[in-house]
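Support case: user asked for a sample of complex input and structure output to validate their parser. Sending the pair below.
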Amino acid sequence: MSRGRGVLVWSVAVLAFASPAGAQVDSTLAQEGIYDRPFIGSVSNTAIGGYIEGNTNYFVEDGITEGFSMELRRFNIFMYSSISRRVRFLSELEFEHGTEEIALETALVDFQISPALVLRAGIILPPIGYLNQNHDSPKWDFVDRPLVTTGVIPSTLSEVGAGVYGKGVSDGVMLSYDLYLTNGISDAVVGNDLGRTDIPSGKSEEQFEEDNNGSPAISGRFGLRRPGFGEVGLSYYGGYYNSYLFEGVEVDERRWLGITAFDFGASVGRFDVRGELAYATIDVPSGMSEIFGDRQWGGHVDIIAPVWKPALSGYDNATVSLGLRLEKVDYNRGTFLSTGLSIRDDVTAVVPSVSFRPTQGTVFRANYRYHWTHDFVGNPTVRTAGFQVGFATYF
Amino acid sequence: MRAIARRTTRLLGCLLLVAATACDTFAPDGPPEEQLLDGTIEGMPGSQLRQHLVGDEEFGRRFTVEDGLGPVFVATACEQCHVGDGKGHPVFNLTRFGTLGVNGFDPLTQLGGPQLQHRSIPGYPPETVPGEATGVSEFTAPAVTGLGYLDAVDDATLIALADPDDADGDGISGRLQLHPPSELIEAALALAAQSAVPFTHGTLVDGQYIGRFGKKALTVNLLHQTVGAYQQDMGITSDLLVEDLFNPLAGNRASDEAPDPEVSSSAVANVVFYLKTLRAPSRRDASAAEVVAGEQLFGQIGCASCHTPTMRTGRSEIAVLDQVEFHAYTDLLLHDMGPELDDGYTEGRALTSEWRTPPLWGIGIQENFQGGQAFYLHDGRAQTFEQTIGLHGGEGAASRSAFQALSDADKTRLVRFLRSL
């Protein structure tokens, strides 16, 4: 049995024997993720909060390591204001790796007409999958975000736009919907410095000022939540990504990019289970075909099992959990014209974890990651493994 | 308190021990060195190792539209065609074309020749092979491992190996590829001549310079080869080739919007140094009886007449390359391979059926760099050694016949030898 598969088998076995300390998937709708933050709960008007996360990295790839390092990934500041009973403002300013990257991830205003109809405008988080609207690190028991949410779904995706969302109840099932128009993403989906189709490379701050092609992207999600069980969601994001207009003249074909995602989260016995599956189609210029893929997909499943509630003074709900993430991303689904063989460029990973939550909004976590990576032409598997220890907490 | 401190210290010590053990236990091993082609020549000082690694990074750099990629190109990085420093996958095959007329071979430069760039940046049309082309050939990118040894062979060695009139009567008539002086060739040679040791390249033969790299020995040294690949394969301009590519069929001579040169001379120099200092491939089972017997057969049936097993470098300012013996199994000369490998395309003074002998080192693990399936010969048309040998015509025809006359056991020995390279 290979080392990586051994890790997988042991991880599953440990999870299977986890004690039923009480699993709990978030009890709020996915669409309310941005308001499901502890700093908001106790104030009536304006509040400032945020979260911070950091971790260590030690990875070995095919026997070669660059050693041990530490990083402060994110320091995010939220500002929330309840402007009136039905008007809310929320923003999120992100400092990534210190001041290496500073981004305004969210700055939006919600105008509630009724719970079933809320108007939203500003810099929003398009509702693709679950994580994009629920990306706060303290919510997760793993150091890294799932590959599908950073490689296929370009989380965190922030775009200028407007739309509506709402929720309702029918036969004990909560229904939710989101529908937005945004400026969309831009040209670097292809022709980027990764040398492959990379949707996250299409994110551009210039899009906050002006759409590169004058044609908005559309995004939407439809969710069903059954209290006590969990939520499933089906979402879509699509739009023309290339600058086909130059000085108002159409100089290129319009190229559409679409991402369809399915997400789920449920409490199943002692386990919390959460996952996303995404499939992207990209209209790639014929001059870039094959090496820039026109189809990508990926998915992950996280299984978390609380195993111990230690009695710690001052920490009434301290919980130790075991977790396992299984994930795969295929960045280029297709076949070579020259050989008829499959194009690869994929990553499969298994990530066992141990996490400790002294309180709900703070997590200490230790992960072991094992990746199997195939390059574009399908050469022998590159194996990468490593340990990460980190923390994340709301403030 | 002391007891608590002691216990804590012990506990931390145990945890660190467990962590250290776990790091080793759970870390994946790499493939054995003999299954790889990358890595440096042993014995280089730290300063050269660093330059090699900087060149390695540059070799892997993916060029973007903003960097000057294209507007027409074949690949976006050196590494795409030479994955793991090995022979490339057919998806990155270079297509070259031209036409044979009464005045010789015309590479159809006015129509985008001699190389097709069938990929392009968004909004720009990729090239297609013009109807005027009568000769079209595909070139699979070669392995780049050990190129420094070949670059360091002095001109005198190649001149001595050449036997254009088959004076020794062995049926093999290796010819030098020769190129008339050009601004590019002389600049590439002049830069290489800035060396702390006597320069052994740039010899004029009949008023022309000796070519040694490329399927038909189109380029005279690694710098010449590298700047040509930057331009022709990626559409990246350099100090020596500042003209961007464009597609004549696009109807204008406009190219990309990046200022030229698009790659700095130091970046090119680092890549050239990287290529020069890649190690020679390691052998596998070289001393096994079947392999040794296979090598003897390789010589007996005449393969070694072109695939010269051993050469020696000349003077080199890189100490590990200075006057050392190596085993690339090539003579760097042009040989007529007959109609079997005649694509009707050529470069320099080579006949359309003439090819420079490719080095065989690393051929035994070629599939590790081509997606698990080996694609042999200049365009990847053969997938087994038997097919490959079967396509050796012309000067290789006698060796092919001799191979086909071998017993199955001897064929297996010969193939085992090839797999050991």
